[in-house]
Amino acid sequence: MLERIARTARVPELADVLADRIPSADLSSVLLHAYRQRSARRAPADLMAQRERDATVAAADVDARRLNVLDRLAFAAAERFEALELAPVCPLATNTVLGGIDQNNVLATIRNTEVLADPTTAQALECARRRRLGDSHVRLCASNRVLRMQPFDVPGFTRHFRLFALASASRATPSHGFELAALREHLAAHLRLLIALGTEGYRCHDITVEVSHSRIARAVLAHAGADLDQIRSRVRSHAPSEAAEPLDEQGVSRVILRDPLPAMNAILGSELAGPARLLASVHRDVFSALGRQFPTVDFVFDLTRTEALDYYAGAMLKISATDATGVRLGLADGGCTPWTQRLLSDRKERLLVSGIGLSLIATRFSQQPTR
Fold first, then answer.
1. Per-residue exposure over 145-180, b if at least 16 CB sit within 10 Å of its own CB, e if not
2. d(CA 298, CA 300)
3. pTM for this structure?
4. pLDDT per position as a tens digit, 101-125
5. Cβ contact 315:336 at 8 Å
6. Do residues 208 and 297 lie in contact, with contact meaning Cβ atoms separated by under 8 Å?
7. Which residues contact residue 248 at a Cβ distance below 8 angstroms, ignoring those fewer than 6 apart?
8. Which CATH number fits domain 62-364: 3.40.1190.20, 3.30.450.20, 3.40.1260.10, 3.30.930.10?
């Protein structure tokens, strides 16, 4: 495609010139001029045609009042977190540099920014800024409409949607103290929201919390003979039903347990002793406390999680529930990341992020019909 464009423009090295040889500020000036000229030639019919074919500019198929109610419930459930109103854009390549996300999945602008695709990466920048200024512990929450460019073919998933996100940042503490406290706070906030939904006409059946660890999951999957490269290429975070398909095809059984310690000892032995101790502490300290607070919720460990193994680095969380039609969906996801370590060049920095899909709740878990 690039070769065809270069031939049409009669500039053989057009792609290299635009990508590498023109400074960013000058490239922005060129593109601003080009789009100003193109905009001057547009007609009302062009606007209507794009509105019909382009899903990124279509209105959401959900009553905005529902999302307003969900915002209120979410912020109330996360009362320990400072509420931010994030900018609608963030620095260019934020998601590529921090999360390894393909830039084609993010809408870049011509002013060296990109449209918000994930509140947690923007929150990570704010966490790093505050940590650098001396804040000992940062807890942030935000509710934003985000835009992602990859195609979605799962009911209830669209190009743009509302996401409520949490971020906790601090310095490493002995015996995984930060991870345990942050994991408990994030899970409690998300569960308080799901329980509160019942007062507003929503119904979430069979809520399950799954905690995993990226290093343990990779080790257990490798021990079982799973092809990790194939799993990475197949699993999509927005299609949780597909997560088990590569395992089924490879004859690998999922390992989901209430107490992970016996299985970890049997499979891993002394390998990965640190991550194993972390999950054992989650079982002993986090799940026991949350189980008393939320007695109707099921708490388990997934030692063979396949999603986002390269995105997160350490403990991972997932919350699933069954909607009114009997379909099981992942509502919340999160985990530890090295983003603040990289932003601050300090391996002792710790960050845990998570998000829950408010648009998905509004469209799939409401007992009232969507418009």
1. bbbbbeeeeeebbbbbbbbbbbbbbbeeeeebebbb
2. 7
3. 0.91
4. 889 899 999 889 999 999 999 999 9
5. yes
6. yes
7. none
8. 3.30.930.10
